[in-house]
Every structure is written in C-alpha cells, then in structure tokens.
Amino acid sequence: MNFSFLKHILILLMVFAFAELNSQNYSISGIIKEKKTGELAIGATIYIKELKKGTTTNNYGFFSITLPKGNYSLICMYLGYNTYSDSVVLDKNQTLDISLSQLGGDLQEIVVSGERPDQNIKSSQMGTVTLDIKQIKSLPAFMGEVDILKTIQLLPGVKSAGDGQTGFYVRGGGPDQNLILLDEAVVYNASHLMGFFSVFNGDAIKNVTLTKGGMPAQYGGRLSSVLDITMKDGNNKNFQVDGGIGLIASRITVQGPIKKDTSSFIVSARRTYIDVITKPIFKNTEFAGTSYYFYDLDTKFNYRINNKNSLYLSGYFGRDIFQFKDKSSGFGVQTEWGNATASLRWSHIFNSKLFVNSALIYSYYNFSFTALQDNFEFKIFSGIRDHNAKVDFSWYPNARHSIKFGANYVFHIFIPTNVSARAGETQFDLGNVVKLYSHEGHVYAGDDWDITDRLRLNAGARMSYFVHVGPFTRFVKDQFLKTTDTVVYSAGKKITDYNGFEPRLSLRFELTKTTSLKASYTKNYQYIHLASISSVSLPTDVWMPSTDLIKPQIGNQYALGIFKNFKQNMFETSIETYYKDMKNLIEYKEGSQPQDNVKDNPDNSFTFGKGQAYGAEFFIKKREGKFTGWIGYTLSWTTRTFAEINGGKTYFAKYDRRHDISIVTAYELTPRWNFSAVWVFNTGNRGTLPNSLYYFEQSVNVNYGGRNAYQFQPYSRLDVSATFTPDRNKQLEKRRKRIEKRYLRKGKDFSTIVLPKGYAKNFSQSWTFSVFNAYNRHNPYFIYFDTQGSILKGDFKVQAKQVSLFPVLPSVTWNFKF
Amino acid sequence: MKKHILTPSLRGGPGRRSNLTLLSLLLLVALTSCKKNIDVKIPDYVQKLVVQGSIETGLNPEVYLSYTVPYFGNHTCSLSDFAVKGALITITDGSTTDTLKEVIPGLGYYYKANTMVGVVGNTYNLTILLNGKTYTSHTTIYPVVKLDTLWFKVVRDDSLGYIYTHFTEPAAPGNQYRWFGKRIGKDQSFIAPLGSSFDDKFINGKSFDFAYDRGVIQNSNATDDNNSVKGFFVKGDNVIVKFCAIGYDEFRFFRSYDANIISNGNPFAAPSNLENNIKGENVLGVWCGYSPFIDTVLCK
Predict the structure, then answer these.
(1) What ipTM goes with this model?
(2) Of A1, A302, B70, B105, which one has the greatest count of Cβ atoms within 10 A?
(3) How close A600 gets to chain B, by Cα (Å)?
C-alpha cells in the first residue's frame, strides 16, 4: 500500500503550516456552549472583525484561531442565538469559553447586529447542509412524528424514495452509499415500520449535517453522502423533562446535571402504540395476538473531567417487533429488527492549537423472522456488527491553516441471510450459520488553507485498506448456477484485500464579500455493500463485505458551484452542479430468489455494473425573521449499465428524476401561533412494468419490459402544520380565577391558597396540528395488473391499477416541557 | 398465506417473500391506501412465442402454443387472441420421431402426439417450426420418487384442510419435484398450487412431513373458489395427488413462474420474468418431462 504518498502530503502540509510560525503569533481557543443548558455549540462561527477571518467550532464545541499579536474585536455567531462580541488583547495564548443565550428567550425584541454568519460563502466546503433540530421540528411532521430523514429529503440533490420510505438517494447514488452516523456510530438501517419512520428521535438530536459532495478527508467509506447526527449532551444546569403525546407514538426525554456544569445525562425514549390501539380490534378474532410496535431509546452521558478532558458515552437502541397470529390455523410469525450503537469518546485539548478526539464505537443491526405452524418452524436472521476504534486530530497551527488528520480501524462481522427450518424432529439442511469477517482501516489528512484572503483550498487524502478473512466457505458455481465445488478458508486466513487512495480537493474563491465560487473533486471507495432483492429497501436487505467476487465500489465526483448572499446574509443562494461516476455497483442477477442466499454465497447471485449521475441544484434560503424557509430545485439524471441486466443496455436508475422541487416555509405569526408548510413536486419514479401478457396453465400472467422503462406519474404533496403555544401566564391567571371563584362560593379566603410555584414557572406546553397531503393527491405507490374472467370463456379483461398509500392525514401532537 | 409456511422456502421460496408481503400488506391495510384504474403506455413491446410443453410417463406428449399479447387496456379477449396455428412440432427420443397435431384443427393452440408415449429414462428433443423460425428444447423423464404416506388434515373450521404427506427424500442430491392435485368430480384437470415446484437443495436425504393447499385456477368462478373454501380441501373430497420428478432447468422455470405470478401486485417484490428452457428468438416457456407418483386421498 502506498503510504509514502500520504507521508509526503503530511510533510507538505506541515511545511505550509509552519511557514508562518516565524511571526509572533498567539492563539485564542475555547469551547462554545449554550448558556441555559450547557449544550456544546456545533458549527458556531468565531469571526475576527479586523482581519475578516474566522473559524467554526467542531463537533465538540471547540475552536482555535491563531493570530498575530494585537487588539481584536471577536464576534461569535450561532444561528438562533444572540451574537456575542468581545474585544481581545492578544499578547499571549488565551482560552475563551463562551456561553450563548438563545434568541427570543427573555428578550422579546431582538437587536440583530449587522453581522450574520456567512459560512456558506466563506467555507471551502460545498455540498453541505446543516440543519438545526429546532428548524426540523418547526416543519410539518408525518403522523406528528418529527423525522430528520424526511426533512433532509427536502434539500436539493436529496431524493426520497416516495411515500412510506425513509430511504434517500443523494446525487444519483444508491441508498447504501449514504453513511449515517449517530454520535460517530454507523447506523445501518435507519428506518422503522418498513421505512415509514426513521430511527432518530427528534427530542434527543442536536444537530444534523449532510454532506452530499466535496466530502472532506475525515469522512469516507461511502460513495454518496455522510449524514452526521449529533445527540444532545444533556442539560448540565437544570433538570428538564420534555415529552409529547401523538397519534401513534409518545415520547419522553429526561435530562439534567449529575454534577452541575461538570457532568450531565440525557435519556430519551419513544414507543408507538399501534399495537395497543389494535389489540381490542383483534381481541375476539382469530388474529388475537397480532401486533406491531417499535421503540427506541437514546442515552448519553458526558463528564467534563477538567478544562482539557471530556468523556462522552452515548448509546442508541431501537427495535421493531411484529407478531402475527392466526388462531384457527395455528400459524404465527414473529419478526424483529433493529439497531444498537454505543460510542465512548474522549476529547482532549493538548494545547490551544491541538485538539484530539478518540473513540471506541460499536454498531449492530440485526433482523430475524420466525414462522411457526403445527410442527413446522422456519427462521431467518441476518445482521452486521462493527467494532470501531478511531482517533481524529484537529490542529490549528496558524490563522491560515486548519488541519485534520486521523485514523480508524473497523472489524466487521457480516451475517448475511441465515435460515433454519424444521418439520417436527427433522432439521432441514440450510447450511451452517454464515459469518463473514473483514478488517477495514483508514488514515487521512486534510488542510483547510487560506492561500490568500480570497482563495481557500481544502486539500486532503484518505488511504483505505480492506481485507476479507476466513473462516469462509466459497461455493463454486458452474454457468447454470449449480454448485460444483466448495473452497474452505480457515479462520484468520486472508482471502482478498483491496486498498484505495482517495484524494479530496475543494476550492473556494471569493468573488466579492458576498459571492464565492467553489469547485471540488472527491474520490471515494466503498468496501461494504447493501444488496436488495426487492425493488424497495426492506429490513431483509443484506449487507455484504467486499469479497473475491465483489470489488469495492469506486466513485468520482466533480462539482462546481456559485454561492451568493443577499441582504446582509439574510438570504443564502447557491447553484451547484455535479458529475459523478461510479463503478463496481452491485445488483442481484435477474431472476434471483431470496433462497439463493441460503446454503450459498449471496455474492454468487450478484452482478456488477457502473453508474453515472449529473445535475444542477438551485437553492435559496431565508434564514431569519418571522418568515423563514427555502426553495430547492434539482435538475438531474442518473443511469446504470450492467452487462447482465436489461440486456446490457444502459437504463435509468429507479430514482432518476428529472425535476425535483421543494418549497419549505415557516411563519411565526405571534409568539403563540407558528405555521409551516412544505410543498414538493417531482418527476415520477421509474419502474419496471409488464409490457405484455402471456397465457400458461390456464392463467394469464405478465411479462416485464425493459428495466425501469416506465415512468410513474409526477409526485406532489402539500403538508401544513400549525403550532399553538398557550400563554402560560394567561392560563395561570385563568386558573387562579377559577379557583378563586370556587373558594369564594364556599366562603373561603383565597389569599391563603398558594399555587405551586415551580409548576407555574417552568411548565410549558404546545399543540401541533398538522395535515399530511393536504390536497389529497393520489401519488403512485405501485402499479399492478388486475385480471378478470377467463380467456377460454372469452370474457378475459385486464386493467392496470395504481395504488396510492396516503390520503389526506391530519394529526395532532401535544408537547410538554418542565 | 399459510400454505407457504407449511413448506417454507423448501418449495422454491415464494414462502419467504409472501410472509414479508403479508407483513407489509397488514401494515398497509392498517394505514389507509387507495387504488384507482389508470391508463399506462408501455414502450418496447415485442411479441413472443409461449410454449407449454410436457411429456409424462405413459402419456402422449402435448404442447400448448400461444403468443404474448400487448397490454390492451379495458376490453375483453379470448383464447383466439393468443392461439398459435400452423406450427410444425416434432419430438424425437433419439430413435423415433413423432409429429404433433392440432387437436382441434383450425383453432391451433393445443398440439398432441398420437403414438409416442413418455418412458422413464428417455430424453425427448422438441423442435417447433413456425413462420420460418425454429425453437428447440430437450427434457428427460427421471425415475419416479415416491411419497411415503398421504393424509388429509383439518386446519380450519372443522372441515377445511390441506393434504399432508410424509416424504423421504432420496440420498443422492440433484432432485426436483412438482406437485399437482385434482378433486375427483370437481376439477377438470390437475392443478398445481402456487409454489408447486421445489428442489432438494435444503432437504437432500431428509425424511419429513409437508403439506399442500388446493391450487385454484385464475379467476375461477366456481363457488368454492370464491368463498372460504378457496385454497382448501373439504371433508369428503376425493383427491388425486400427482407428485412428479422433473429436471433442474424445468424446476428453474416453475420457480420463476411462481415468482412472476407473485410479483404482479406486490410492491415489495422485484419484477421477475420467466427462466425458459426453450432455445430460440423471442420465446418463453418450458418443455418438461414429468415422472409422476400418483396416489388418492379421501378427505375425512
């Protein structure tokens, strides 16, 4: 493996980094927090007015900026918070911890300073969007459940798979090409209930960043995007309980200090109660015992050991459980699937210029299905387990450089479809439990470098290595897919290895103070693959490592964009164009069946091909004021070419979508009433539909035409919501009067009655009313061909029918906090 | 749905898929969904020849020939829209050759040999000449594999049930099977239920019980295909079970045929076309040799 190249880059970076060391420089560094709760502020901007230079906090709220000796005005900006400003006399290295107070809070009138964050212009990063959880929560939610994955689908370049799907596609890439991280732990299946809901509970989430292009060197392992989700740390000032009761689920979050200002915890739980509602319906039927529910639990604990060391322990655990029982036939099904993640992180500040975070991470996903009838039993299970260790350094040698470097190592255990079945005492021969073991390693370095005041370059590279090791049994196939031989590898034996060199470059050129041009090139290797036999993502999809048959997916992305802000950064606009090529993509061979995975290698059923995607994304966003929101429009193409699919002819990917528009608005009418609306319109998905009918054994069936040759009707939908936050004082006043009246009636003296003080002070509540699909559009979900009559009698008829999933769906959620 | 679980995935897998379908459909029904008729314009239609050919031990070989028809919207059609006339079909077992005749001259579709009968161990080559094009295939009649015992068992409402069997699968790997049932006096012909075909990949040499439901003809208007009896045998039925050994390619065809049927109307299934064992241009279908084990079960 060519590590020497990386070494050269590192040396080069150091030379640049130290180049300015000779002048007399000092640094200011610190942690930025939210005043009321002590939550770390991610992505807050620190700006030095005199030098027009700035930096942003990392995921641990840490910033560092190195400047020549002098007097400076320092401004700290964070969306939704009052701007902090201070003058600094810089004649030695300084630590400056800042606490920001929330906008609105106590002040009703906000004096907005002339400065607003303009990170979108200044940063060398392109193709990145950060969403604040408050912003996400202000939008209409399907069935009242706030959903991060559905919100990011409203951004240009991100496409939803359609109604009832949390799967998303970024810039023409597949659903397995998105790296979803929750506190740095990989989440392999981010959906509940076949994709209707995502696993992320909005109450436990602080920040969401999506990178869809120009991926910096610290991220890798997937071709298309990184969705980096950070959980709240937990209020380290006061105990706080938030909760909500919705139509299908309830949530509760408890957080508070363990030791004030030093350590805190947060526990957030959510559970659906469809099963509770349906229980009485099924109770006296033969289906008694049939139920479905999901739950998830997020916990985090953090401990600030001292000014330089902090520990974070976070975990997620979620499960979907479906049971089906048919009493009369004795048939039953139990299906369970879910993720678990745990990450233990230690952040350490070496000095004002060097920050390091080390982490031990565990990720787990599994799926199991059991069916029983009489003495027949049938079980399927599959899953993936990751053990990950990583270390990431942030180094701020001087004002012009911000360097990140690090390494990580992952031990993967893949459990593709394993099946067992028995009839009475007879155990069927479905092969041994198959596990595939592999090691994956990465090292990276990247420098964000201000070459001149107008030109910034982010240059980096990532070296990756992947090895598939035994124990492993390879089933060797003939051309008819019959097994002819097996090759057995012993434990630990290297079977195949791959390595990749992944350069990452992005460049920003400031045309004016409010306009910049950006360009980027990234190369990515992806060593793990999701294979889906079905046309939609299901919990049964199987994760597979690269093997001797499956080569790593390789993607190149080129992007060019222009960014401009208007009205003192009140409006952000951008146009980004991209071109992406991908190779070694995988699909199941035509005609593959799920059982082909069993007592066999799943990759024997795979076929490999390439893909292409290009498009343009237009974005305008209003960030502040009573009226906020954005409009995103994407014009895009994406195709696939597989020798063994569609007769080798290039075809459009399922989610090839020419036009995609999202309009997202929120309006604060009064402090009591907030409104929001989302409208989406896009070209219909593509699908493979029958192009003819055939007659066989007294049955007329369908013969499918070209892959994805059919385009569904356009999709469009309007969701609206209104949130009412009752005036607590007014309510208390009413209540006081009510009690007063009662006491007066009884002739008692009211003045002796005292209302509980804490309750009155801290309790707040809100009602959210939302309507999904407000104009009741029948969006296509799937099409099938319905037949009637018999061709022997001459009255045979066939009719194409389109099924739509969700009509207009109103919902109401009650949220509380104390 | 239960039927698939009885011999889950052993029978070539629709079982597993249907369970998922069941699961998802239940969820879908729990939420509201709606459907409407639509017009679809499907590109790139090419007419194909459809072959349904069989030769069974002791019986004359027969071939049903039809064409695919394009999706034709909302008007009725009959067999004559599909039937193929005037094909020259010959079958040879290496020593003798027989030419199949149209059973109802002028209608086409159904072709049958008059003299040749299937013999265990023989391989039969099929040649179809039609409009200057040739289509070929071959199939073998394998030795009979017997079921040990057969019985009827009630699974619902005191009278509805399935046919159960105990089966000892031969020790040597590489066997494939297809199951048919026929109620004497009720069914016109043998009917294969969905998932009728399976191989011994997972059951080689095993001895176990399994069961089959009653196959139903598409859009049948018989009373017991449109009420709670649908898919079940009833107490009093006299059922002939035909359990045939078949070849591997033929098994692959029937496996894909079931997947094809299931894929229509299932949003979670991948569109699945037939894996044919007929060689030629634009042709679908199978030429299958059947080696039947036949037994009768009185449902009681």
Answers:
(1) 0.90
(2) A302
(3) 10
